[in-house]
Amino acid sequence: MKKTARAHTNIALVKYWGKKDKELIIPMNSSLSLTLDHFYTDTSVEFKEELTADNFSLNGVSKDAQQITNFLNLVRKLAGITTYAQVDSTNHVPTKAGLASSASAYAALALAASSAAGLTLSKKDLSRLARRGSGSACRSIYGGFVEWKMGTGDLDSYAVPFQEEVDWDIRMLAIVLNDAEKKISSRRGMQTVVATSPYYPAWVKTCHQDIGELKEAIEAKDFERLGTIAEENAMKMHALNLSASPHFNYFQPETLVAMQLVEELRAAGIPCYYTLDAGPNVKVLCLEKDVAQIKAKLAEAFNQEQLLLAAPGPGAHLLA
Ligand code: ADP
Ligand code: DP6
Ligand code: CO
Fold first, then answer.
1. 197-244 tens-digit pLDDT
2. Ligand in nearest proximity to the CA of 67
3. Where is each Mvd1 C-terminal domain found (predicted)?
4. In Å, how far are 70, 115, 121, 130, 315 from 44, measured between CA atoms?
5. Which has the closest alpha carbon to 34: 8, 64, 2, 60?
6. In this structure, what CATH number is given to the domain that contains residue 57?
7. Which of 277, 281, 282, 283 to mutate to test the pocket of ligand 2 (most atoms within 8 A of CB)?
8. Is the CB of residue 99 less than 8 Å from the CB of residue 281?
9. Based on the domain organization, do 44 and 153 belong to the same domain?
């Protein structure tokens, strides 16, 4: 039976950046994210007796299916089947540009593939399965604010909702400077950092503190505290990249321009904060009431088409 699932991306406010176990994708630290409404992936999966290999298309173009096959092998094992599948996916988010396409991609694939294989997994097991495709995907099973509890291994490393229904006008304005595919994948970047950054132990320690404080800020709807924690956490992550060997970074000149504009807005009394993932695109955390003023300021350097607004979004769900 063909099944289609939709999953939204998420923006990590306290980030996952490093693995304890590469095969099982067990992280070095817990992370906390907000699922977003504007960016998502739709994926359909159908297991068919007549296929002699898995087929994969992304945005209508046929692609190499090796990564998909590796992931589907987990599903086939769980379901006790050996059939190959036709997988068709559409990203409503730029691919590999640091806008978390891997999060929405593997959350959608986990739900579509497990359903198409006849499984009805609990959300916990869906999150564990999505994690095996891409770590950040385990959080996209849920909507709203979500925590990935690092755990110690395959059984206890999964996401749990922290606040699924967000009754808060928090927004994320993505400044798309460049939607080209990045040169250093998240996977490779974090591996270099864990192996070589002298600051890595300090990162792990402060992430534990950041998560505790961030939860308090969310509960208190203290936007300035949330923004400060998120911005500082993102800069700590990028400092790891700068301190790795070989060192690397995801910044482009316009990344710094965007960061500067956000700081100027803040100095002018508008609460807004930036965060960046493994890519040059800057995401501005803000409140709905300030969006128009923030867009007007960003217009000094960016076109309106480069500004994409997202609100809290839902968890992964089946469309058909
Ligand atoms: P991003 O910042 O976009 O998450 P990553 O460096 O994490 O970038 O890598 C993205 C990974 O996810 C790549 O392996 C890419 O092929 C894969 N991917 C992206 N979109 C899809 C999709 N819709 N279905 C399956 N895999 C996808
Ligand atoms: C910077 O989940 O894409 O976006 O597990 O190797 O697939 P893999 O990496 P991925 O890494 C995401 C890194 C991040 C921070 C985050 O989303 O927590
Ligand atoms: Co990713």
1. 999 999 999 999 999 999 999 999 999 999 999 999 999 999 999 999
2. 1
3. 173-305
4. 17, 10, 17, 15, 17
5. 8
6. 3.30.230.10
7. 277
8. yes
9. yes
For the stretch 296-319, pLDDT in tens is 999 999 999 999 999 999 999 999
Nearest ligand, measured from the Cα of 97? 1
Name the closest-CA residue to atom 12, ligand 1.
102
Same domain, 134 and 191: no
DSSP annotation of 136 reads G
Nearest ligand to the C-alpha atom of residue 182: 1
Q: How far is the CA of 216 from the centre of ligand 1 (A)?
A: 32
Q: How many domains does the chain have?
A: 2
Pocket test for ligand 1, best of 9, 39, 63, 96 (most atoms within 8 A of CB): 96
In the reported structure, the alpha carbon of residue 2 is separated from the centroid of ligand 1 by a whole-number distance in angstroms of 22
- Sign of the CA dihedral with 111 first, then 112, 113, and 118 last: positive
Ion ligand 3 nearby residues (CB, 5 A): 102, 186
| Same domain as 155, residue 27 | yes
Relative to the CA of 63, which ligand 1 atom is closest? Answer: 16
Same domain, 12 and 115: yes
Asked if 150 and 30 sit in the same domain, the reply is yes
